[in-house]
Design goal:
There is one protein chain. By secondary structure, the chain is an alpha/beta fold. The chain folds into two domains: 226 residues, Spore Coat Polysaccharide Biosynthesis Protein SpsA, Chain A, CATH 3.90.550; 138 residues, Tetratricopeptide repeat domain (Serine Threonine Protein Phosphatase 5, Tetratricopeptide repeat, Alpha Horseshoe). It is 47% helix and 13% strand. It has an eight-stranded mixed sheet with strand order 3-2-1-4-7-6-8-5, with helices on both faces.
Length: 387
């Protein structure tokens, strides 16, 4: 079984040697390393050419700047392996990544299309900056919906994909400039291919200001573009076909109604969904109601929901932040800061809370500048730049 590594690169001269070395140090060697330079104007090509002199398995292709999707597709086309291991030029991977993947393929003994692992986030100096981010196996209708609700595959870096599947899907959609990998995973799942998962943090995703997806708003806009390819009716049909309770299916549909700004329909759905306090979905139910109230500027009703949430779960970061905003708007700065600082303590790097604390400390009077979190938080936050 031959593995081709595909590395798209754009102005990655500072980091690309570390990316390449993390592949060269694999316990089980790969077949080839294909680097597609996407019109870099820094030292990227020179760095690669220097390493290439001693490593004949490195192949360098250059093209005019056309984006990561086009670069990855070029790499897929040039690859001679049966599997493609993607790695971004500023990321790294553990030396036993390939070994672990091969063991998984042999263990499962069935037709595998995609495999990924848990992730660590690292900084410019390759220091780990967060606990590892877990994922999950994705398959069928449930996987299709799960990845649209909250994508667990935070980067294509370190993901292994069967080349024949990539060819069948026509590779990455070049019209999507951000989260194009999410689009590919969704298309694979919609075609009934599963995505396997290994719960070991073997991929290292570098966070720095030049990341393509460093902006939270850019990522959210890209998610909406991907959803629009299917439409709300199609997503609803998939959601309600899942073998979950009506309660969960309805709450998940409410999430999409919020993302499509269908506020009245969402409020009506929540009014008609009965969720008891002892339900595992009660906190989410209260949170969704609060977002509808915030949109309608019914802040006191939203605050009532946050108080219910914090009785049930005192560590709910988004409820702490959002209630803090309402307290600040009502003139209770002490309570506002207490809640937001608690949110920051629980979720270091929580940008909304950080932004809101700064506004309070600067005695900002423009209430429209405060940031409500419109989604419940991941257990471990992704690192983004400020927007």
């Amino acid at each position: 079984m031959r593995i081709s590594v595909v590395i798209p690169a754009f102005n990655a001269g500072v980091y690309i040697e570390k990316a390449i070395q993390s592949i060269l140090k694999q316990i089980i060697h790969v077949h080839e390393i294909i680097i597609v330079d996407d019109g870099s104007v820094d030292q990227t090509c020179k760095v690669v050419q220097k390493i290439q002199k001693e490593e004949p398995k490195i192949v360098l292709h250059t093209q005019k700047n056309a984006g990561a999707s086009t670069a990855r597709n070029r790499g897929i086309h040039e690859a001679t392996g049966d599997w493609i291991l993607f790695l971004d030029a500023d990321d790294e991977c553990s030396e036993n990544l390939v070994e672990t993947y091969l063991a998984k393929i042999n263990e499962v003994r069935e037709d595998i299309s995609v495999i990924y692992t848990a992730y660590y986030q690292i900084d410019e100096h390759s220091h780990v900056i967060s606990p590892f981010l877990s994922g999950k196996r994705l398959s069928g209708i449930e996987g299709f919906c799960d990845i649209l609700i909250r994508n667990p595959i935070i980067s294509p870096s370190g993901v292994l994909v069967k080349k024949s599947r990539l060819v069948e899907m026509s590779g990455f959609n070049t019209s999507i400039k951000c989260d194009e990998d999410v689009d590919l995973w969704v298309r694979l799942l919609d075609n009934n291919y599963s995505i396997e998962y290994i719960n070991k943090p073997l991929s290292f995703i570098r966070r720095h200001s030049n990341n393509t997806t460093s902006s939270m708003s850019t990522s959210h806009n890209a998610e909406k573009l991907i959803m629009d390819q299917y439409g709300l009716d199609y997503i609803k049909e998939k959601l309600y076909k899942r073998s979950y309770t009506m309660e969960k299916n309805s709450l998940d549909f409410a999430l999409f109604l919020i993302r499509y700004k269908q506020w009245k329909q969402c409020e009506k759905l929540l009014e008609n969904t009965r969720v008891l306090e002892d339900s595992s979905h009660y906190v989410t139910y209260c949170f969704l109601k609060s977002i509808v109230y915030i949109e309608d500027k019914r802040f006191n009703e939203a605050l009532d929901e946050y108080e219910k949430i914090l009785v049930a779960d005192v560590t709910h970061g988004a409820a702490l932040n959002n209630s803090g905003v309402i307290y600040a708007m009502n003139g209770n700065k002490e309570k506002a800061i207490t809640n937001m600082e608690q949110a920051m303590l629980l979720f270091p790097g929580y940008l909304d809370a950080q932004h809101n604390i700064m506004l309070i400390e600067n005695s900002e009077t423009d209430k429209s500048l405060y940031r409500f979190s419109l989604r419940e938080l991941r257990p471990v936050l992704l690192s983004y730049s400020t927007d």
